[in-house]
Amino acid sequence: MSNGLDKNQLVAVLQVLKKYNLKSTEEQLRKEASLTEDVNQDSDVSSVLTGYKSDGDPETYEGSYIELKQFVENSLDIYKHELGMILYPVLVHMYLELVYNGHTDKAISLMEKFGPEQDSYYQDDLKKLAMVTRRDHMNGNELTDTFKSNQFIIRMSRDTLSLLKRHVNDKKASVLLNIVQEHLYFDMYEGVARNKRQIEATSGAVGGEAKRQDNKAKVYYGIPKAPDIQILSAPVEDEEEASEQDNPDKPKKKKSKKDPLLSKKTKSDPNAPPPDRIPVPDLKDNDKIEQLKARREASKRTNLGPENSPSCCCYTLLNSNYTICCAEITEDSSMLAVGFNDSIIKVFTLVPQKLKTMKSADKLQEVNCDVEDVLVRMMDERSGESSRSLCGHSGPVYSVSFSPDRTLLLSCSEDTTIRLWSLQIWTCLVVYKGHMFPVWDVKFSPLGYYFASSSYDRTARLWATDHFQPLRIFGGHFSDVDCIQFHPNSNYIATGSSDRRVCLWDITTGNHVRLMTGHKQPIQALAFSVCGRFLASAGTDCRVLIWDLSHGHLVAELTGHEKTILCLAFSRCGNILVSGGLDCSLKLWNFTKLTEEISSEDVNISHNPDVKTGDEYLLRTFETKHSPLISLHFTRRNLMLAVAVFDAISN
Amino acid sequence: MSKVGESDLYGTNFSIESMKVIAESIGIGNLQDEAAKDLAEDISFRLKHIIQDAAKFMNHAKRVKLLQSDVDSALKVRNIEPQYGFHSKEPLPFRFASGGGRELHFIEEKEVDLGELLTNLSPKAPLEVTLRPHWLFIDGIQPTIPENPPPVAKNVQKLESVDPINKKPMKETSGKPSTGKQKLKNVETVQIKQLATHELSVEQQLYYKEITEACVGSDEARRAEALQSLSSDPGLHEMLPRMCTFIIEGVRVNVVQNNLALLIYLMRMVKALLDNQSLYLEKYLHELIPSVTTCIVSKQLCMRPELDNHWALRDFASRLMSQICKNFNTSTNNIQTRITRMFTNALQQCDKIPLSSLYGALQGLSELGTEVTRIFILPRLKSIGARIEGQLEGNLISNADRTAAGHIKQLVIKIMAPIIKSVKNPPDNVEEYKQDYGYLGISLHAAVVKARTQLTPITSLPTVSNVTNTTTPSSSVSQIINRPLGSTGIIQQNNQPNRTIVMSTQQQQRIAVQQNSQQKVVFMPQRSQTTNVSSQGNSSNTTVVKLVSTGQTLNQNKFIQSTSQKLVVMSSNQSYLNQQQLQTQKSIDDFTDID
User: Fold this and answer.
1) I need a surface site. Which of A360, A487, B302, B582 has the fewest CB within 10 A?
2) What's the domain of life for this entry (chain B) (predicted)?
3) Residues 6+ apart with CB under 8 A from B317
4) φ, ψ of residue A567 in degrees (nearest 5)
């Protein structure tokens, strides 16, 4: 690097400091750099930050692109497809350079000539880029900023890369050389060059593919054994049984049944994180009762499979033309929360028990705090209603999430806030203001206490219910983070973004530990498999992709939907994956078959497995009546619940 | 703006002219070309950005249509003040217009009558969102309930009927997953032509039994329910062949036994099946058409032709036939042509066929439209006249034949008068009419003259009803108006859902059945005795013309005034009710009825 460049950068830094009124730092830096002369005005910050300084002859761009294209086309078949990957980023950067340097006509003709022949999944981005025709359009433009400030990552075999390097050096095409050096990053690997299908499977994301380095960290994807509740809560259980005295045979039976159930779980998973990896508040007595209840329910579960088709109860929302944004069902399937466009949240009860509110303060004083059913007694019996509304947001509510103990509800909205609601007194408890832009998704951790949110501001954040500020901010996505999901062991969160990448973050460190590319459109739904090893993601590109978290490989691509997929769910037994979306259909996929086939293959980090496709995993398809599916859920006994919105207008 | 091609990366930009127009609208008179160009470019860029952002909000609201609120949110994100006051709950209905080489998409802005707004101070409350739980599938089998889509879509039913190989094996349609055994079979065999099986489950058999019993039973309320079920339930397609067989066999037996009531019930079943949107009926037309035809032209349909009102059945069946023609006529099956030919053949030998058949053929043709009537009936008026002249003028004729002839005359005058009026130019000459139309000439002449003098009410009436209810086909309007006084009337309103037609052969004067909200009213006066048939026949035209004026006997006049007026208004009333008051019901009905 020359001194001149250094100086330029320093000047830019000084300018930034000046802009933000950081005087002492500015002076300090000025002294240290011995830059006493006044900053010349024309070296503005943006020109330093962008890499487009080359003043190559605008006439040569088209020629060098054609030359590169010919080189790719004339190369040997085995290298052809890998080499082809550089065409798109080179075109984009050539275009941006031309636009930046004011040669708009040349840029447009270049784009019109070569834009349409790029891969179909790049067309959306090219359209967005084509909107940029002047230098000032690039200010604050999400996509151009991404291209400017990040290197486009291309994975290439050693042979292909050396071939390319030789070509670039031979030609001495300064334009091309500059772009390759400045804006492309080649992630080289040993071995045979990939074929077209392998390349297509993982390409499509903004910013290129994931580096191998991104997926090297170890992920504790296993599920830790459940804390031994039985010993802790022995008296609690007795009480439970005491209340079931009318049927004396029953408790005994249960006890004998429960023991093997619990002993099975004591087998510890080698991939599970240590139980104290993340701090979690202690379980309250109430939670323990709840967990016991859940396990008892789970023991009555029917296992689903291709031979044992599930049943599905569909909750169709009527009279709701274009007003419903989201819906969620509690873990125990007792309540349904719906978020509306007009900023209201409605909670419906799905069981005969009505939604009760707490007694007033003076009446609460009369309640004896020592009785064991104090939680029941403090509720006002006469206040039961079948649905309740929560008002407070000032924009569409894009996501709602119940806490595991069902006393709290989180919601996020276009008004940039996240709200925590009490489902006992039916009011807002906390407003979390941290995101500066609309919040797209919010999820409670499976253990409670923690929750995660994702936003238009391209970040995901981790929060704890008792902190106003986020605990972690996960930055790195190039575009909106559209959806978020907690790993079942709560140690990781997955995010899906409009930059078409799926990312797995470690909540203890805040680093990304998996970066997965392959989607061709924004991602709308994420679901972790029951075993914790696989992640399913789906979105606007109408495909469900299955990722193996152990190495971050794409293992399967399930196609069949015709419109955006909005929701995914695994059955409680983990055998079936369900997807539903705007095409008003619900598809059942045979997940057992998939996992069996994957585990039989030998997979390591450098060996990409073949991506499985095809109809053989599709078990069944069910249609609803003009009702897009917005939420899917399995009860503890494996009955499927779906939430659909009847579309009366377009039918 | 021109249409954007698929691969067009650059799309469209604002034109300089648009910029100038917009500038003028805010008072900037002389915008320079350069400035306009720069503005156009910049504004296009910004607009595209905002739309791109608005699409994000649309996606997250899980919609496929962009609403104004999305644009507002996109503006808010960019710290621009949203466009207040542009709110509609539904996507804007863009209208398209072209002309003079230009294409234009625009929003139709209706004028709002402020006076009306002020008087209607209570605005409609938005409907409450309701939650309806239902089974989507049970153990992998989707139940056929109104909340679910019909098990076999119409186009699939069509495919099956056209090409039985395409019919999926029973295993899949009934929802059971295929087993490994099944697969093996498919591998081994070269090609098994699947048999189209029509097994009915126990529930379906029960349903079939209940429905058929209710349809031909004596309980009118149950029948209404059964017909309602037939006309709206999805998933009847598996029972359809059996239903059709039931109807065909029923017609066959009851024609022989002259059981008028049962024939009417069976025709109403046909009507219900025709109304069911989820059925692909084409497959069974070859069976249904002969049965319906029988009910139109059969020589005898009742025990006492001189007393029983089999004319109503013929009228009703004729309307069914025209509905079949309208719904199913294609260039390959030529149903309309074939049916027209069938009736015309009957007319050609009008000397030989019984009078009741002649009536049926005439009615059947007239229901097929005025064009058919003009081409096929008009030239034959003379021979028809000759045929009935003998019956009406002669002395040694049975009562039944006299009645039949009277009906034919009445019918001919009713259907021909408007046509002749348009064919012939005034002045009307009685002699000319006599020469052209023989025996019927005089009556036709009288009717036409009457029609001409009463021109105003005739033209005004249908327009009035068209205004009040634009969806009412004009034919049904005229049906209502043209209903002969005192004759049996089945008054239909073709545009109404949940129609129930109630016919009765009991000796009641009028039965007015009004069921809940969406029902229509059916008047069923028993035909009055035969003595004054001819006079009524003559006056039937005056009825058309003189809806508002007098000219009938007091009692009858009152009746006709009240009924026809009420009915015309009713149709509009009902749609009004539908929109205004029954909204909740409607939306839920939409979900359960329409698919």
Assistant:
1) A360
2) Eukaryota
3) B267, B292, B293, B295, B296, B360
4) -145, 150
How confident is residue A229, by pLDDT bands cut at 50, 70 and 90? Answer: low
With an 8 Å Cβ cutoff, is B79 touching chain A?
no
Q: Quote the tokens at residue A163.
A: 């071939």
CA distance A364 to B414: 82
Mean pLDDT on B163-183: 46
- CA neighbours within 13 Å on the CB side: how many for A554? 29
pLDDT, one tens digit per residue, over A28-68 is 887 777 765 554 444 455 555 555 655 567 778 888 888 88
Q: The tokens of B292 are what?
A: 């319906």
In this prediction, residue A496 has a pLDDT band, given cuts at 50, 70 and 90, of very high
Q: Which of B6, B7, B137, B182 is the mutation pick for testing A, counting most A CBs within 10 A?
A: B137
8 Å CB contact of A316 and B134:
yes
Say if A307 falls within a structural domain.
Answer: no
For chain A, give the percent of residues with pLDDT over 70: 87
CA distance A90 to A309: 50
Q: Are residues A329 and A405 in the same domain?
A: yes
| pLDDT average, residue stretch A384-407 | 91
CB atoms within 10 A of CB A218: 9
- Cβ(B266)–Cβ(B251) under 8 Å? yes
What CATH number does residue A636 fall under?
Answer: 2.130.10.10
Render pLDDT for B55-89 as a digit per residue (tens, 0 to 9).
999 999 988 888 888 888 999 888 888 887 776 65
Contact A338 B591 (CB under 8 A): no
Instruction: Let me know whether A521 and A627 are in one domain.
Output: yes
What residue ranges of chain B are covered by domains with CATH 1.10.20.10?
A: 16-111
- What's the rounded Cα separation, in Å, for the pair A372 and A377? 9
Q: In CATH, what number is assigned to the domain containing residue A122?
A: 1.25.40.500
Considering only CB atoms, A319 lies closest to which of B49, B62, B130, namely B130
- Domain B16-111 adopts which CATH fold? Histone, subunit A (1.10.20)
pLDDT at B20: 85
Retrieve residue A634's tokens.
Answer: 């399995």
Joined tokens for residue B494: 């073709």
For the stretch A196-213, pLDDT in tens is 888 888 888 888 888 878
Residue A173 in any domain: the answer is yes
Residues A118 and A140 in one domain: yes
Residues in chain A: 651
- Which pLDDT score, from 0 to 100, does residue B127 have? 79
Q: Exposed, middle or buried, B489 (CB in 10 Å: 0-12/13-18/19+)?
A: buried
Reply yes or no on whether the pLDDT at B508 is more than 80. Answer: no
CA separation (Å) from A74 to A67, A68, A155, A196?
A: 10, 10, 20, 16
Question: Which of A138-152, A250-264, A400-414, B157-171 has the weakest average pLDDT?
Answer: A250-264
Is A222 inside any structural domain?
no
**Using an 8 Å Cβ cutoff, are B482 and B414 in contact?**
yes
pLDDT at A628: 92
pLDDT at position B458 is: 43
Residue A51 confidence (pLDDT): 54
A:B CB pairs within 8 Å = 177
CATH number, span B202-331:
1.25.40.770
| pLDDT of res. B409 | 86
Domain that holds residue A236: 229-299
Interface test with A, best of B12, B62, B71 (most A CBs within 10 A): B62
Specify if A318 maps to a domain: no
Higher local confidence (pLDDT), B293 or A232: B293
Q: Give the count of domains, chain A.
A: 4
Say how far apart CA B14 and CA B503 lie, in whole Å. Answer: 64
- What is the distance between the alpha carbons of residues B339 and B327, in angstroms, rounded to a whole number? 14
Looking at residue A546, what is its pLDDT?
92
Closest by CA position to B532, among listed B365, B352, B405, B406: B406
